[in-house]
Amino acid sequence: MGKQSLMIQQLNNKLLSFVTLKQVAVPPTGWIKAIRTTLGMSMQQLGNKLSVTKQGILDIEKRENDGSITLKSLREVGRVLDMELVYGFIPKDGSLDTLIEKKAMELASKIVLRTSNTMKLEDQENSKKRIEKAIKERTEDIKNNMPKILWD
Questions:
Q1: Measuring CA to CA, how many Å separate 9 from each of 13, 22, 63, 88?
Q2: What is the value of pTM for the model shown?
Q3: How far apart are the two ends of the chain, measured CA to CA in Å?
Q4: Using only C-alpha atoms, what is the Rg of the chain?
Q5: Would you tell me how many other CB atoms lie within 10 Å of the CB of residue 100?
Q6: Pseudo-torsion of CA 146, 148, 151, 152, nearest 10°?
Q7: Which residues of the chain fall below pLDDT 50?
Q8: At what angle do helices 54-66 and 71-80 cross, to 10 degrees?
Q9: Residue 79 contacts by C-beta under 8 Å, 6 or more apart in sequence?
């Protein structure tokens, strides 16, 4: 197993542990406000812990809700609430392998079809079956070599 393949496998295993979290809905008011109000903590009390005003807490909760809050701020709020911030990414297609496969097939199709079109213009058109085989072969080659152009 190559170094790149091992890195993909190890990172994929880490990312897969987040998959179940995808189903957890973010509270409509945001996590900070939901936790604060559930604990019965006022904005003033949370503000005192963070050394900010009540207005500062209102701003933090607003920034979380509109997505402009920083990770640093979230970590700090978590720290004063005696909680830990956890974040990660989940591949939309299920795994890094699937993502790589999809991108490799897209690139392979583009390359093979471009070549096929040129051959067609020169009256040397390949069969549909040959084109599909060429795409599969090129996809495997791209996956194995992981060229930088895969992500262009």
A1: 6, 20, 35, 16
A2: 0.74
A3: 26
A4: 25
A5: 20
A6: -140
A7: none
A8: 130
A9: none
